[in-house]
Known about the structure:
By secondary structure, this protein is an alpha+beta fold. It has helices at residues 24-28, 44-62, 75-89, 104-109, 152-167, 190-197, and strands spanning 13-14, 22-23, 32-37, 65-71, 97-99, 112-117, 123-125, 127-132, 138-144, 170-171, 183-184. A five-stranded mixed beta sheet has the order 5-4-3-8-9. A hairpin with a 5-residue loop joins β6 and β7 (123-125). The chain is elongated. The mean pLDDT is 91.
Amino acid sequence: MAPYLNDTFPNLQGSTQDQPDFDLYEYLGSSWGIVFAHPGDFTPVCTTELGKAAELQIQFKNRGVKLCGFSCNTPASHRRWIRDIEYSMGHRVEFPLFCDPTRKCAAMLGILDLTRSDVEGLPLTVRGVFVIKPDKTVAMMMAYPHTSGRNFDELLRIVNAMMLTEAHSIATPVNWQRGDDVIVSCDLDNEEAKLQYGAVSLYFSR
């Protein structure tokens, strides 16, 4: 059954581009993680996505977030593609790309697109994204169609927001960015909010 919010994310075990015995839980350790699937190696949109992820990988690392790509290709294909990404996008992928040529893990995650297939007639994956908390539960998930590349700046933004709300009794409003105002949780009354956060603005609605 595909995981939903707050479910435990399955432990991916298998091969990556350079590791035959990869274990996702072992790789993540106590860090946050992002597993993102792409339809296929060498495809133009996926190449731009992986190039952007490689460009931002140090920013994710600085936040304590580990990246893991995912597709239904082989380790050899991944290794060739990584060289192509570096040549075309100017950034080298330093994170694992999980290999799922049998589609077993993709089916388990519910990310197969049965309307699109590779040259062998096997289904490709959608652009699925799972943000995983240190306890291995799903903090956020979304899926993009094959025609539209993901916004990795938005992934950074939502990671910032979720880490903040995980640590404090707050919520973040629309389009929130680091340094913007936040919303104090309704679990706190006015006095508790002032005690915990100092001066707060009070808004009332009917």
